Amino acid sequence: xxxxxxxxxxxxxxxxxxxxxxxxxxxxxxxxxxxxxxxxxxxxxxxxxxxxxxxxxxxxxxxxxxxxxxxxxxxxxxxxxxxxxxxxxxxxxxxxxxxxxxxxxxxxxxxxxxxxxxxxxxxxxxxxxxxxxxxxxxxxxxxxxxxxxxxxxxxxxxxxxxxxxxxxxxxxxxxxxxxxxxxxxxxxxxxxxxxxxxxxxxxxxxxxxxxxxxxxxxxxxxxxxxxxxxxxxxxxxxxxxxxxxxxxxxxxxxxxxxxxxxxxxxxxxxxxxxxxxxxxxxxxxxxxxxxxxxxx
Length: 296
Hints:
alpha+beta, Dna Topoisomerase Vi A Subunit, Chain: A, domain 2
């Protein structure tokens, strides 16, 4: 087998043969816990349309041959020999026709139909299960009715700075276009940065009865925005980082500390041993008073 043929093998099928399966599919994106390292949150994406991959934690990317060389720690020749070995069967990547792609993509897009205050009891139960106070949820979340694959659904909606929404219910996690982060400006010189909305909501629930004026808040909604939001972070005198306890959170925190270790404070020690702030809050946050290095 030559390199050209190997690049045309289906990436998703090949990963399945290696025992790696997606944790989430939002066509054409297939999300995995990275096969190249240990992680708790999926940050390795395969684009089924282009048959390419990217690891957002390391910013490595490429085709199937690039992946194989990295995965098996070998050169291209050795990887091609492995693909051609006895008993090896592979599926060739077949992208959809352009006319089909356009029609299918339209069906897969999330379309917001209506947004209003939260009234659905299942959504109220869901945010309460994640230990979010009613007062906090009603202030920062809304209920959205959205269309997907021609059917209507409802979810909690957390707005971003470009008019899109992060959508969550007990069975669904997604977002509407345009995707962006969320910046809440309270006129403070301090900033608290979160990876996802429920970590932010947990923080506001924990400090619900604190008399001190709140800091500004930046909810990334995706760590892919971390680098582009650094200039905004650097406009603040102090920045508390409440990122996830995974490889991506570690990388982003180290990146910020390398820029200015006095300005940036890594607050992940508060919830050490847990996936993120909400995970800690759900299991411990209601039973003991949290200790942080900076006031909110």
